[in-house]
Amino acid sequence: MNEGTRLNKFLASCAIGSRRKCDELIQAGRVEVNGNPCLNMGTRIGPADHVRVDGKRVTPKETITVAFNKPRGYVCTREDELGRDTIYALLPHTMHSLHHVGRLDRDSEGLLILTNDGDLSQQLMHPSKSVEKEYLVTSNQAFENAHLDQFLEGVYTPEGKLKAKSIERLSPRRLSMVLDHGAKRQIRVMFDTLGYQVTKLLRVRIGSLWLGDLEPGRWAILNQVEINMLLGESGSEKPQSGRSGAPKKGGGKRL
Prior knowledge:
- The protein is of the alpha+beta class.
- It folds into 3 domains: 5-57, Structural Genomics Hypothetical 15.5 Kd Protein In mrcA-pckA Intergenic Region, Chain A (Roll), CATH 3.10.290; 65-128 and 212-230, Pseudouridine synthase I, catalytic domain, N-terminal subdomain (Alpha-Beta Plaits); 132-206, Alpha-L RNA-binding motif (Alpha-Beta Plaits), CATH 3.30.70.1560.
- Helix content is 19%, strand content 27%.
- The protein has helices at 7-13, 19-27, 118-125, 145-153, 186-193, 224-230, and strands at residues 5-6, 31-33, 36-37, 44-45, 51-53, 56-57, 65-70, 99-100, 109-115, 133-139, 155-157, 160-162, 166-171, 174-179, 198-206, 209-210, 219-221.
- Strands 7, 8, 9, 10, 13, 14, 15, 16 and 17 form a 9-stranded mixed sheet that branches. The chain has a 4-stranded antiparallel sheet with strand order 3-2-5-6, with no helix packed on it. A two-stranded antiparallel sheet has the order 1-4.
């Protein structure tokens, strides 16, 4: 019986990144085990082993996962070459080592997850998991009924055929849209292809975890029950204020 932790899982527990990223580091020869370069993906790490990445020793860290209400006008990166405001300007320095799971573009708002748990990041991002994400979308003009059907059947775009899992019309220019596979800027690309302009895009749910009344620019540390909800391990009924379907109000700057 093999003992110890598989190398990529060990690296993920050190907040290096997702298991996929850790695999890439191993393949690139940037990982050493006990002073020797290690290219063996199946290597297992025990308590007496020393692991280094790019010459620096790494050790497992306590995992932390945060729900953040991203405001409009901020980009999901630590440093922006164009000098735009980043989400990390709104987070305490102790959270700057967390990586964002997926991203929302500069003009989009709402629920964003940040974590140093590489395994969780991999589960949330892997296509096989089909984690649902729900958005409230406002358009510059009223939707045609035929286009609502097309969102579900698939829109042929320059990025390929894109479709929503479900939609609900909330008003002539506003709808709720659920995706379980996300291409880059998928909603905006679909809308642009059909001649609509998105004027507001707000993500309100990931898995079974709702944004709730978490205010823009604020964050909340998630407990294990809430982390399980991200993976859809409980009902997705929309919570009312104060119910457990949304993270409790956390810290951070209020805009």
